[in-house]
Amino acid sequence: MSKIFIARDLSWLSFNERVLQEAMDETVPLDVRIKFLGIFSNNLDEFFRVRVAGLKRSMDFGKKVTSESFFEKPSEILQQITQKVIQQQEKFNHSWEEILSQMNDHGVELIDHKQYNEEQIKFVQNYFESQAETNVIPILLSNDRQMPYMRDKSLYIGVAMRNSKWLYEPKYAIIEVPSKVLGRFILLPSPDGKKHVTLLEDIIIHELPNIFSYFGYDKFNAHCFKVTKDAEFDLDNDIKTSLAEKIEKGLKSRREGRPTRFVFDKSMDSGLLEFLIRKLDITSKDSIIPGGKIHNFKHFMDFPDILPPECTGNRRKTIIHPLLSQDNRITEVITKKDVLLSFPYHSFISVIHLLRESAMDPQVKSIHITAYRLASESKIANALINAARNGKEVVVMLELRARFDEEANLAWKERFELEGIRVLPGIPNKKVHAKLGIIKKRVGNRTIQYGFISTGNFNEKSARLYGDYMLMTSNRVIMADINRVFNTMRKFPHQLEENLAGCRSLLVCPKFMREEFIAKIDNEIREAKAGRKAQIILKVNSLSDKEMIVKLNEAALEGVKLSIINRGIFCWYLKGKNYKNVKAISIIDEYLEHARVIYFYNKGNQDLYISSADWMTRNLDHRIEAAVKVTDKDLKSQLLTMLKFQLEDNVKARVLEGRLENMYRPINDEKEFRSQIKILAYLTDIAKNTEQI
User: For residues 206 and 116, is the Cβ–Cβ distance under 8 A?
Assistant: First the structure.
């Protein structure tokens, strides 16, 4: 077979370059470009914590195992990663210089400690003394002492100190920048018509003579650096230990993770740089990346709102779904009719209102919900707590192993249990990633059930930025299947497949979703071979599962029309005349495309699903996921229309192919068509013309 796979990690870097393209695009508002730089940086940090760390561990495994998992040798992938990251860093730095110049043109200046005027120096000294000093803890370094613990997500200042009259070698120290406590950006007194902002680390560097006043140093060479560590941890197999206890132990072990990347200011003192690399036990196999002055750029996602209006994007207003306005009780609506919410165009407040209604409704007896990533001040969680206080049975399947949210979810577990909410312990060796909720109420002698299935997390903060779908419904077959999923998690976690095999409307993982989608692809292949219309539309975040790629490749070669909208990892090597009937694009725009939608023509029946699962092995085989078929004629039409809008995008769509070039889809003689703008206009028009129930 000719090459049909792209190494997953190289494809991921190609995705992150698409994010960087948005920061480089001068048609994008300046404040949005800054945010995209922050997103790019944060993405790259997580990539090194997880994927690069995994590649390094895998080098100890056999050749067959690694080639099946990564499609190429890990050592070769790592070499390509280093080259690509350095290239991207150069583009990043160039983009940032352009943005800084444009900010300056509009009166907003990011100034460092060397640029402070007299008034600003007095402000900085007062700020340091009143706000920062107690949070700044310098640590002296020594050859005969072990390197202190370095936090993975923190920014550090490396200091080389000398006295101009001494012949001694310089002394070294590090200071952790306390941005988590104080924030990263400080607004300074500014000249008329200007807005000056400085970084917390610059204030600390300015005050180094004060910090080290007792030691007699008069020369300081200070530059920033950060260390990225392996974020994976193993859960022990002690059956006497609860999952929560195992995760707490694992979080502690994460502190000891090996460095996977060392990023530093290329102007750093050479002696200090050599000292840090040696003491951190960083080798040539690790990524040692020289950079600019500013690191931990993820904080720039929260850059102060100080740019003038002409430099900022128009904040798009969300709309309340017309059937879920304040005039209607949401419960009454969805017990009569299915409702499809499209976030962030539709407001997430309707979901919160539904849970608040249920919390106060004396006829509601129970609420069951899955939770993967909750907002830090979660209104969803508050509604569930309110329901428990009102005597409802509340059950939450809280996934404690959600990566980088483990600590937050442990805190939610404790809070929920204190309020009388039952928190399910999870499934052995399987993360629960399905997005399900079911509410039961007793009306006379009848039990009424209604709920929701979503492609994204029940998180009101991310719902303002993530493009997702939620089906609200009281369909009895769907409710029976959601009940089955929760009963399995509550009572039969060790008999997972046996119990989930009974689902009639939901396609669930592991096993069953994969089997059903492969059968449907085979059906389209048979139709294509018979000369009849055969079509598949796939919208996912990532496509990396080997079996699914092979099956899609077979469909393409047999003439099935394939349209793919894939935001991130895309491991299918599309190249050559055999793929003329395949269209694959990635859309990167202001909203994060997060929904999973799968369409099969199916002899004109047009089967259409929304799903929580990407087409990755981890989702299809190692998680609890759920997909639901949308059967309402009007909702199917809306979903198909929005899919077609995205396939027509010629402003934010990049073509996915084997060379990973991220070329924008050509416009040719067409008018500009930006799908996110079109979808908002389409849903707004529907809202204006929808009759109330």
Answer: yes
72-78 — which CB contacts under 8 Å span 24+ positions? 72/7, 77/7, 77/9, 77/10, 78/52, 78/285
pLDDT at 275: 92
Contacts of 641 (CB under 8 A, 6+ apart): 682
Identify the pLDDT of residue 153.
82
Q: Which of 299, 353, 433, 594 is catalytic?
A: 433
Close Cβ partners of 499 (under 8 Å, ≥ 6 residues apart): 484, 487, 488, 492
Query: Which architecture, in CATH terms, is 322-500?
Result: 2-Layer Sandwich (3.30)
Cα 120 from Cα 190, distance rounded (Å): 8
Specify the CATH architecture of the domain 8-311: 2-Layer Sandwich (3.30)
- Domain 508-688 bears CATH identifier 1.10.287.110: no
pTM: 0.91
Nearest Cα neighbor of 51 from 24, 80, 22 is 80
Backbone phi and psi for residue 530, each to the nearest 5 degrees, phi listed first: -85, 0
* Closest among 446, 444, 466 to 455, alpha carbons compared: 466
Buried b (16+ CB within 10 A) or exposed e, 96-121: beebeeebeeebbbbbebeebeeebe
Task: Determine the number of helices (DSSP H) and then strands (DSSP E) in the chain.
Answer: 22, 26
Please check whether residue 384 is in contact with residue 367, taking contact to mean a CB–CB distance below 8 angstroms.
yes
Please state, as a whole number, how many other Cβ atoms lie within 10 Å of the Cβ of residue 655: 16
What is the pLDDT, as a whole number, of residue 249? 58
Residue 433 a catalytic site member: yes
**Mean pLDDT for each 10-residue chunk of the chain (693 residues)?**
84 96 95 95 90 80 56 85 90 94 95 95 97 94 86 90 83 94 95 94 96 88 89 53 59 62 89 90 72 85 92 84 86 95 97 96 97 94 97 95 85 95 89 97 94 97 96 97 94 86 94 97 98 98 96 96 97 90 96 97 97 96 96 97 97 93 86 95 91 58
Instruction: Delimit the CATH 3.30.1840.10 region(s) of the chain.
Output: 8-311
Location of each CATH 3.30.870.10 domain in the chain: 322-500, 508-688
Q: What angle do CA 177, 183, 186 make, to 5 degrees?
A: 100
Tokens (6 digits) for 72: 């190429």
